[in-house]
Known about the structure:
This protein is an alpha/beta fold. The protein has helices at 10-22, 34-44, 62-73, 88-95, 113-124, 132-139, 149-159, 164-171, 175-188, 196-208, and strands at residues 2-6, 26-31, 48-51, 79-83, 102-106, 128-130. It contains 10 helices and 6 strands; from the N terminus they run E-H-E-H-E-H-E-H-E-H-E-H-H-H-H-H.
Amino acid sequence: MRVVIAEDNVLLSAGLELLLGSKGIEVAAIVTDEPGLVAAVDEHRPDAVIADVRLPPSFRDEGIRAALEIRRAHPGLPVLVLSQYVEKVYARELLSDGRGGLGYLLKDRVSRVSEFVGDLRRVADGGTVMDPEVIAQLMAGSTIDALTNREREVLTLMAQGLGNTEIGKRLFVTDNAVHKHIGNIFAKLGLPPADGGHRRVLAVLAYLNSS
């Protein structure tokens, strides 16, 4: 796997390069601003991008705007946003194309190297991985009130990229119970029959974009 990193913190970007290299992941380029990210993706055609939300010169939303730009130029290119902040408007826009291959993790909450690398690989494979705090903020004020508390818990874990068995273990329920909850979620959100993985993404997007 080859990745491009957009991060202006030199120590963090160097640490990521060493970490990923130790796991057999090549860092094709490290850039520090929005134009550099767009150019690096065009040049290297990576398998995935890791981008901070806030980059020079204004340190506001350059990174996630660049992510939107490269997803438009390269549809489906996997992007993992790694930041200290949750930019709700742009996060929803980034998720809205329904293609998957997206992640949004908070730097301060990444506690295990193996989990981070696993999340990156999941995103590169077309999955959707989101920090629970990001989910909580995006769900705040949601107009969808038809879901039960347990169904919301299941949907939150789906948004983190977990499968049925993993969700069941987290909630101490059986696979059949998880399957039933997911079926109820799909029905309440009015989702059409489709591939399992894609339906999960659609369910997450329907929920997160409902506020």
